[in-house]
Amino acid sequence: MKMPVGFAGLLLIVMLPIRIQAESLPAPVVHGNSFEIISNSRYSVHSGFTSALSDTVLSNVLWAMSRAPSLGSAYREFYVATPSNVYLYDTAGHSLGVHLAGNHRFSSNSAFEIGVATERDEAAGLLVAAGLIAGCAFWNRGSGTVASCPMDFAANHANRNWHPNHRINMVNVFGRMVVTGLTDSCVAISSDSTLPRPTTNGPDTFELVVAGLGLDTIFEPAMLPLSTVAQLLWAGYGVTPHLPTGKRGLTVPSAVANYYLTQRIYLVADTAVFRYHNRLPPGNNLRTSDHRLQLVTGGDRRDSLRSACSRIPAAAPVYIVVCYTDTTTAWAILETGFAAWQYLMQAHALGLGGHICAPLTPVERTAIRNALGLAGSEFPIIVFSAGGIVTAIEESPAQAEPRIDVRPTPGLPVHIEYSLASASPVELVIRDLAGRVVRRWTEPSKQPGRHVTAWHGADNQGKPAPAGVYLGQVTAGGRTARARIVLPR
Fold first, then answer.
1. Sequence-distant (≥ 6) Cβ neighbours of residue 102 within 8 angstroms
2. Cβ(122)–Cβ(334) under 8 Å?
3. CATH classification of 7-179 is 3.40.109.10, yes or no?
4. What does residue 207 show for φ and ψ, rounded to 5 degrees?
5. SS3 of the chain: helix, strand, coil, percent, to 5
6. What is the pLDDT of residues 71-106, one digit of tens each?
């Protein structure tokens, strides 16, 4: 990042956090890698990297982190340390503003370091996990160059030297290094056939799942197939081919490979409460691999769980409760956030809805533990709800959601088709993946029926937009429909 002329001289006089005009980041790019194969391949690199990474990597990582739910935190800040400055990331403008001039990185070899500051460690965990996966999305099969690791030492350094507005929970350190890359080799094989083998390479591109991410509160009550439940459990805390320090790695990172949540993840289904195991019996040997369920309490406890915490969505067919032995171990609480991000992403990649209930109050923790028949040493930290999405609620055909289709064309223009059930004003907006408006059309009134708008690839100023993936949105009659648009090269 370049500093304005004369800025270095000003620093000789004023050595305080300052701000200059925002520097725009490039739009996020879309890779061909699925969330599942990235999760199966991801691992942390602690040292040995160099500082050569493009602004596109930084753009994608920050954008993905900004898409993670806030879990109700009053503040959420993203600090970016580069060899030039410490910046604050503006999520609305997808841009950087200088927070503190000069090089204040923890690692002299890092390309950039991203510190997250939020009220709760579980909320920070979502942000950290999103950034790690977004970086690994740049990998190819068998090789990659984007390396990263969340580092507590770096967080301590940042809190001492970056002058943050709020305490930084964790810092992701990124750099360039040759890594082994993507693999879909599956090691999550059940020792007792209680769970089917998960899919380690899905059909949907990671960035497109992130673009549509959100929390759902209304679900179809139909029970999910066992294969779907198995996929969710694996994505959140399942074994992978990586072997850090001789231990079998998981889809999420863990401080010194301690894997705090081992034996502390529970599935609440229509027939019973089960413990999820990713290790061979008795379940605590971190060098082993498994993918199985163990019965905890029989019977349908879902209504009891919903009564224990009124904020849990009432109609979800499946709940996953993540626990720990206390609520003060920061790394363990961060790890619950890592798992929650994975559950949410996997649910959306499967076309399901997902909801994260956190933080939980002490009263709710006790009530949930009692409702599920868990041991007194278990402290529920997060409840994840999953199920089919209720796509529309209609009282009459006139209130139906507009339908938008994108007709593939070999070149420009791109044809955007939509249908209306009744006459209505219409707004059509095309945004880049960072959410910035590229092109906007408005019509005071459109008649019922099918309509086609041709986009010739220009922005609102008539300048050609870069080739890539965009999000189209049609709003009519108080309803909105969205679709992905590929602007050809």
1. 11, 84, 85, 86
2. yes
3. yes
4. -65, -30
5. 25, 30, 45
6. 999 999 999 999 999 999 999 999 999 999 999 999
- For residue 349, how many other CB atoms are within 10 A of its CB? 24
Going from N- to C-terminal start, the domains of the chain cover 7-179, 206-389, 397-487
* Span of 236-250, 348-362, 433-447 with lowest mean pLDDT: 433-447
- Distance (Å, rounded) from C-alpha 314 to C-alpha 169? 32
Residue 129 near residue 356, CB atoms below 8 Å = no
| Spatial distance between the Cα atoms of 484 and 33, rounded to a whole number of angstroms | 17
Would you identify the CATH topology of the domain 206-389? NADH Oxidase (3.40.109)
User: Between the CA of residue 222 and those of 17, 34, 390, what are the distances in Å?
Assistant: 54, 27, 11
Distance CA 128, CA 347 (A): 19
Give pLDDT, residue 152: 95
Angle between helices 121-136 and 330-349 (to 10 degrees): 50
Residue 214 CB contacts under 8 Å (≥ 6 apart), including other chains: 69
Confidence of residue 20 (pLDDT cuts 50, 70, 90): very low
Q: Position 175: which residue type?
A: G
User: Which has the closest alpha carbon to 18: 3, 37, 29?
Assistant: 3
| Residue 103 burial class via C-beta count within 10 angstroms: exposed 0-12, middle 13-18, buried 19 and up | exposed
| Confidence check: pLDDT of 227 > 90 | yes
- Amino acid 384 reads F
**pLDDT one-digit tens code per residue, 471-486:** 888 888 777 777 778 7
Torsion of CA 189, 193, 194, 197, to 10 degrees: 40
d(CA 114, CA 147): 13
Instruction: Give the three-class secondary structure for 267.
Output: strand
CATH (residue range 397-487): 2.60.40.4070
- Read off φ and ψ for residue 411, nearest 5 degrees: -160, -165
Residues whose CB falls within 8 Å of the CB of residue 10, separated by 6 or more in sequence, listed in order: none
Pairwise CA distance, residues 275 & 263, whole Å: 7
Confidence of residue 450 (pLDDT cuts 50, 70, 90): confident
At a CB cut-off of 8 Å and minimum separation 6, what does 226 contact?
195, 196
| Cβ-based burial of 467 (10 A; exposed 0-12, middle 13-18, buried ≥19) | exposed
pLDDT exceeds 90 at position 364: yes
Both structure tokens of 271: 């027939």
pLDDT at 418: 81
421 HSE (CA, 13 A, CB side): 13
- Which regions of 37-120 does DSSP assign to beta strands (E)? 76-81, 85-90, 95-101, 112-118
